[in-house]
Specification:
The chain is built from 12 helices and 14 strands. By secondary structure, it is an alpha+beta fold. The strands form 3 sheets. It has an 8-stranded mixed beta sheet with strand order 1-2-10-7-12-5-4-3. The chain has a 4-stranded antiparallel beta sheet with strand order 6-11-8-9, with no helix packed on it. Helix 3 packs across helix 7. The model has no long low-confidence stretch (mean pLDDT 95). It binds 2-oxoglutaric acid and fe (ii) ion (FE2). Fe (ii) ion binds next to loops. This is Fe2OG dioxygenase domain-containing protein.
Length: 356
């Protein structure tokens, strides 16, 4: 697929560019820049991340799955119970309180299934596993992509761990590969439409810890702090986009920022093209309660005290496990579960819910 070049006339929000190779060497200046990106906006570009080839193979798998007849894909649909693994049909989720349906299809592959392959542990075969092309590429493409993405995200989390003053490896304990989690790889297709305003994925914060996103076309927008205008993030060749989700924001007492974002169709020169994107989401193990690690870090404890003094109502103890937090958000964005605007409100994360 030939992607038209990015339009000059569309304003974009700049992100810091972080070099993964420098992070690997624990370069102090690069760590400071990462910290600035993670605490101010919660989004940054990541270059030299070693995942481009595998990401390309994941992109190639996209049409193999999405071109199957809808009836075939629906055999693997994620359902309405709060799970996400498998296929998500376009129109399955709301994009706003008014119940407007989304326009994107997803394939979500559980990190637990990719790592356990040739066994499937989260999706029991045969009838509810994954569409055949995904199974055929599990060994050669999906599992290596998952393993490499986990490596990138865990290095970044390790850096946050140390900056937050947590004991060595503390954040890693929440993300051990052996514990089941909702961590997953996602291939996203948004159908071509000339309406560049039609919301594809509604405004949200990400549910988990860290998202590692590959964009080839425009359409991702962020709502920067203090702004009321959605701003495009320009896709840059060979640069991934990373962002913080709710779990890391809560663990850190809000120091790490889980920022609102959404997806609309590609703009201007790229309009009316199918939009494909790819994400790996690292999320905490299912059993961990999402709460600020106040007793374990002075920095976090001070941040929570300051938030309390500021009266923003956030006490950073959700009382929910990662599994419950994720399940609640998933269930309540499903159109099939919608009763009214309250269902949308119940699907919100740190941007709306007062965590007490
Ligand atoms: O497709 C994109 O650019 C972003 C997707 C996204 O925000 C998500 O799936 O959570
Ligand atoms: Fe997202």
């Amino acid at each position: 697929m030939i992607i038209p070049s990015w339009p000059e006339d569309v304003p974009t929000h700049p992100l810091l560019v972080i070099d993964y190779q420098l992070l690997k060497k624990r370069d102090a200046a690069e760590i400071e820049r990462l910290w600035e990106a993670a605490t101010k906006l919660g989004f940054w570009y990541l270059k030299n991340h070693e995942v481009d080839e595998l990401a390309q193979k994941m992109f190639d798998l996209g049409p193999e799955v999405m071109d199957l007849p809808l009836e075939e894909k629906m055999k693997y649909e994620q359902g309405d119970q709060g799970g996400s693994f498998g296929y998500k049909m376009a129109g399955g989720n709301a994009v706003a309180a008014n119940g407007e349906p989304d326009t994107t299809e997803f394939l979500n592959v559980a990190k637990d299934d990719a790592l356990a392959w040739p066994n499937l542990v989260r999706r029991a075969p045969p009838s509810t596993s994954y569409p055949a092309p995904a199974l055929a590429r599990m060994e050669s493409v999906v599992a290596p992509f998952v393993r490499k993405s986990l490596e990138v995200n865990s290095l970044i989390m390790d850096i946050f761990n140390d900056k937050l003053g947590l004991k060595k490896g503390r954040l890693a304990e929440f993300h051990v590969n052996e514990q089941w989690s909702s961590s997953e790889a996602r291939i996203i297709k948004n159908r071509a439409t000339p309406n560049t305003q039609k919301i594809a994925i509604g405004s949200h914060t990400d549910f988990g810890s860290l998202s590692f996103l590959h964009n080839r076309q425009g359409g991702l927008q962020v709502l920067p702090p203090g702004s009321e205008t959605w701003q495009y993030v320009k896709p840059l060749e060979n640069h991934a986009i990373c962002n913080i989700g709710d779990a890391l924001s809560i663990f850190s007492g809000g120091i790490l920022r889980s920022n609102l974002h959404r997806v609309v169709p590609p703009p201007s020169t790229q309009a009316n093209t199918e939009r494909w994107s790819l994400v790996f989401f690292s999320r905490p193990g299912n059993s961990f309660v999402l709460r600020a690690l106040t007793e374990e870090s002075d920095m976090i404890s001070k941040a929570v005290a300051a938030a309390r003094a500021g009266g923003d109502g956030k006490k950073f103890n959700t009382g929910s496990t990662a599994e419950e937090w994720f399940g609640r958000r998933m269930r309540n964005q499903r159109m099939a579960n919608r009763t009214g605007p309250e269902t949308w409100m119940a699907s919100r994360g740190t941007e709306r819910i007062e965590v007490v």
